[in-house]
Amino acid sequence: MRAVATEGSPDFVPVPERVAVFDNDGTLWCEIPTVQLVFALDRVKALAPQHPDWRTRQPFKAALDGDMAGIGAAGQRGLVELVMATHAGMSTEAFARLVADWIGTARHPKFQRPYTRTVYQPMLEVLALLRGHGFRSFIVSGGGVEFMRVFAEPVYGVPPEQVIGSTIRTEFHIPQGSRPELLRLPEMDFVDDGPGKPVAINRFIGRRPIAAFGNSDGDMQMLQYVTGAGGRRLGLLVHHDDAAREVAYDRQSPFGRLDRALDAAPAAGWSVVSIQREWQRVFPDD
């Protein structure tokens, strides 16, 4: 940190070029269960009376039954169908209100605290350290961008314009007798995961970051892009290996799988941080 922020250092980086990128789920806060998926499942239950066919139609039946294996069996297509049915058909402002209301009351099933208190204390400290050295930190996540923007600033100190995520299509709309709005449509626009992350970084940031933080194979291409250029650079993977204080998962997990990136880390020079061995405190309230 000191090397890139000290004028006269051979590794000095001007302030405008001090950019760091962070995955969200499993890197900045808990990933099991995936918070936005829990939100979608709660929305399915709330909307089910309006859709009686969901009781017999997959993946909605699995969602209503709490059958996570059935939801997993539906694959990405099934997850997209759940998201489209529960996240679209409303204005962006209405969706933000839904997310804010939900996240204000929802609790993590294992830790029995708000999801906004299952953020990782060491990562909050990293964000603060970077800010203190002139860095701009961006969230680059597979999660929905408008979902994350509701809480990113109060929880992480990352403003909404520095949040990049997956998007569904929106269109400009003026309801009769009302003010203009953006309407969320039931159609995917962009999936910000895997190789999509470097594309999104270039599209929305316009600079190659010099630090990247992730936790899964979905972050691998982002770390490759960030660390695969010259100069002093940092790539870091959070390894979830603490079943007692958090959750232990890596190579076989259906969510947040860390397999290929874990194998690539030594040759790439990426740091792999063990939650069990290297984090004195996991959550702020611990």
Automatic annotation (TrEMBL):
GO terms for molecular function: hydrolase activity. The keyword Protein biosynthesis does not apply. InterPro entries: HAD-like_sf (IPR036412), HAD_sf (IPR023214). It comes from the Bacteria. Keywords: Hydrolase. The keyword Ligase does not apply. Transmembrane segments: none annotated. This is Haloacid dehalogenase-like hydrolase. It comes from Roseomonas acroporae. The lineage of its organism: Bacteria, Pseudomonadati, Pseudomonadota, Alphaproteobacteria, Acetobacterales.
